[in-house]
Task: inverse folding
């Protein structure tokens, strides 16, 4: 069966000016550098990584908001294009997005029910009363009470605004929702409400999520599959339980060990990575993680590891774990 | 004049003997202070701290009486959601709230009252006795000055060093916060450093006055997970080495659990629970604390559906009668809406402001 969304060797490079000379010298920012994944219908793929790893650029590419430098995206079997036209507009109906800041995504001079109904107007669906009827139904199903429908965005709380954004994204019955840090701006007690709501929405409408976050705990909570990105590439991919309990890639292991938790058992040492966060304008040669990796081999400086299956549906891009590598057994690292 | 006295002590080039730099308290305050001085005083003790903001039409209360004591060398976590008053508490202690704020209550530093002091009188306390760092290091640093100059300025201001000595001390401080090749980094501008490095510079600057206490307001919230781990390690290390007390303000219970001895949970301008860290996470007693813990996703253990706290935090000025958490509380009963519950002891060092806490 074909996946709902499939990317193949997706790359997006930006020309930039680096310091040096009077006007700087030209450089290349490799925001996304060869990302391949498949997302089946009705499932959630979590993209996780630190700032600058390319997760948001991946989202924009998937949505057709910018064109890739190379590689291909297929959505419902059709190639995704960034060229605006009838095909692009049809695509927009089937995929929607939810961003971090709901206030920035809403029109502050329009009542929220009108904003939820607006996509129907844009696509010429139904009469005005029908559109309002559908907007009200959907707002109720994302947990908004009727007395909030006629309010303006500033009269709602952060969690309520994010529900409005979600209702508006769902009204065209999309098959894919791209969520870029959808709960990062919300308070702890509200985050749980929205996470649970995302689960319910998925169960009810069968929509797939591409869920992007820097918060590993949240990604584990919502995802069916998790991909960890580092400097524009996926370094590890697998099921959330497996990946968080037995991280294989040295970067994932550091990332998972860095999650602060009130329930951390004593005796689990936190792996503190040396050095600065990675700079996508100066991607190291070979494995991009090797300067911060405690177990780097000479090979890691020279050759870039490709994402390879290590068993159990887990894919890892690491020379230490490559099936053909004789330098270390996978068991040695997968503690 | 008290302020002038303090200024004189502050501008002296010799290192003043800090413990003996007593502020002579005046009249009523002195008797209050004396009564509290019978036991060895806590480093900082806050009593009945109330803050209201004047928006021109009315007073908007945001803190409703905070009581908190912090001993020397202790690390206290202050946790709560946005608007609960966790930052305002410390901004009020340091007199940083500006003219629109009405602050009541008492704040004692080593048993000496520091509330009611004006800006000039607080200057030798800020940075020298209690330092504070914030979430976004870049907005706290001057973008057009090299970090060495900014650090040296703090050093000479607090400790009266001359330019050469201040620069040497600045290098030592950068080295102390593990910035590689510290001497070269003195000439860097903030924009040339990463967020994590800038937060290290801020910590170095906070250490410049060799304070007795550091207030860290969401110091790792803007940082990536692996950098957050580095900064938490650094704060823990500095605290162990220097014996400095630390008040860590965060919305993230995980971060609090990482380095704190004791935790205070705040909700809508009040403290709702206070306990030793392990006790709080293993046996939370206030329904809000329990709710927060149940609402947190985690990476340890099996995946479960989160138990969200219904509703949302009340806005200041629109607080419900009685316990502010009652409308969201599953265990609330009629008495909860009558009066705000006082904090009661439910175990060693464990305080809970909940009528239901004794039932549980």
Result:
């Amino acid at each position: 069966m074909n996946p709902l969304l499939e990317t193949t060797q997706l790359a997006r490079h930006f020309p930039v000016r680096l310091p040096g000379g009077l006007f700087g010298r030209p450089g290349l920012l490799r925001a996304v550098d060869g990302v391949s994944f498949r997302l089946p219908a009705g499932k959630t793929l979590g993209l996780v990584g630190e700032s600058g790893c390319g997760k948001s650029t991946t989202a924009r590419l998937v949505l057709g908001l910018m064109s890739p430098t190379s590689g291909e995206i297929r959505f419902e079997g059709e190639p995704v294009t960034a060229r605006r036209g009838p095909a692009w507009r049809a695509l927009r109906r089937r995929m929607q997005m939810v961003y971090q800041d709901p206030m920035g995504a809403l029109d502050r001079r329009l009542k929220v029910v009108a904003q939820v109904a607006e996509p129907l107007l844009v696509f010429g669906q139904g009469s005005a009363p029908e559109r309002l009827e559908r907007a009200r139904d959907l707002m109720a199903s994302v947990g908004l009470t009727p007395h909030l429908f006629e309010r303006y965005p500033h009269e709602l709380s952060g969690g309520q605004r994010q529900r409005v954004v979600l209702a508006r994204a769902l009204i065209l019955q999309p098959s894919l929702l791209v969520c870029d840090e959808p709960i990062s701006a919300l308070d702890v007690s509200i985050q749980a409400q929205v996470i649970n709501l995302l689960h319910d929405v998925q169960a009810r409408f069968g929509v797939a999520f591409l869920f992007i976050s820097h918060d590993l705990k949240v990604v584990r909570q919502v995802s069916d599959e998790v991909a960890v990105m580092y400097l524009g590439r996926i370094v590890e991919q697998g099921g959330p339980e497996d990946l968080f309990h037995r991280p294989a890639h040295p970067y994932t292991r550091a990332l998972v060990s860095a999650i602060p938790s009130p329930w951390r058992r004593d005796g689990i040492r936190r792996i503190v990575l040396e050095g600065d966060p990675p700079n996508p304008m100066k991607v190291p040669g070979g494995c991009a993680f090797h300067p911060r990796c405690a177990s780097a081999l000479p090979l890691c400086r020279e050759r870039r590891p490709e994402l390879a299956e290590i068993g159990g549906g887990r894919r890892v891009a690491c020379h230490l774990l490559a099936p053909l590598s004789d330098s270390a057994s996978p068991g040695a690292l997968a503690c | 004049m008290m302020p002038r006295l303090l200024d004189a002590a502050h501008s002296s080039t010799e290192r003043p003997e800090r413990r003996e730099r007593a502020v002579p308290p005046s009249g009523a305050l002195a008797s209050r202070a004396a009564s509290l001085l019978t036991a060895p005083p806590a480093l900082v003790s806050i009593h009945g701290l109330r803050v209201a903001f004047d928006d021109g039409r009315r007073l908007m209360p945001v803190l409703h009486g905070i009581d908190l004591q912090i001993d020397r060398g202790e690390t206290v976590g202050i946790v709560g959601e946005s608007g609960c008053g966790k930052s305002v508490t410390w901004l009020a202690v340091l007199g940083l709230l500006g003219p629109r704020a009405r602050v009541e209550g008492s704040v004692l530093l080593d048993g000496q009252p520091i509330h009611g002091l004006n800006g000039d009188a607080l200057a030798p306390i800020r940075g020298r006795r209690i330092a504070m760092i914030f979430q976004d290091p870049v907005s706290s640093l001057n973008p057009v000055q090299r970090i060495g100059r900014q650090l040296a300025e703090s050093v000479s201001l607090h400790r009266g060093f001359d330019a050469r000595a201040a620069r040497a001390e600045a290098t030592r401080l950068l080295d102390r916060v593990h910035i590689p090749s510290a001497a070269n980094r003195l000439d860097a501008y903030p924009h040339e450093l990463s967020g994590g490095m800038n937060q290290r510079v801020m910590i170095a600057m906070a250490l410049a006055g060799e304070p007795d206490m550091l207030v860290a307001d969401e110091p790792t919230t803007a940082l990536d997970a692996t950098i957050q781990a580095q900064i938490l390690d650094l704060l823990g290390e500095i605290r162990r080495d220097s014996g400095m007390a630390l008040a860590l303000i965060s919305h993230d219970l995980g971060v609090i659990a990482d380095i704190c001895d004791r935790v205070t949970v705040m909700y809508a301008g009040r403290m709702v629970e206070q306990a030793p860290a392990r006790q709080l996470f293993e046996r939370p007693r206030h329904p809000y604390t329990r709710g927060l813990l149940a609402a947190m996703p985690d990476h340890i253990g099996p995946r479960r559906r989160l138990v969200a706290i219904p509703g949302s935090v009340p806005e200041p000025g629109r607080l419900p009668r009685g316990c502010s958490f009652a409308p969201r509380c599953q265990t609330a009963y009629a008495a909860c809406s009558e009066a705000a519950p006082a904090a009661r002891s439910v175990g060693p060092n464990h305080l809970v402001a909940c009528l239901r806490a004794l039932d549980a």
Notes: Residues 1-28 of chain B have pLDDT under 50 and may be disordered. The longest helix of chain B spans residues 225-242. The interface with chain A takes residues 81-82, 194-197, 224-230, 232-233, 251-258, 281, 291-303, 305-310, 312-313 of chain B (CB under 8 Å). Residues 94 and 125 of chain B are 8 Å apart (CA to CA).
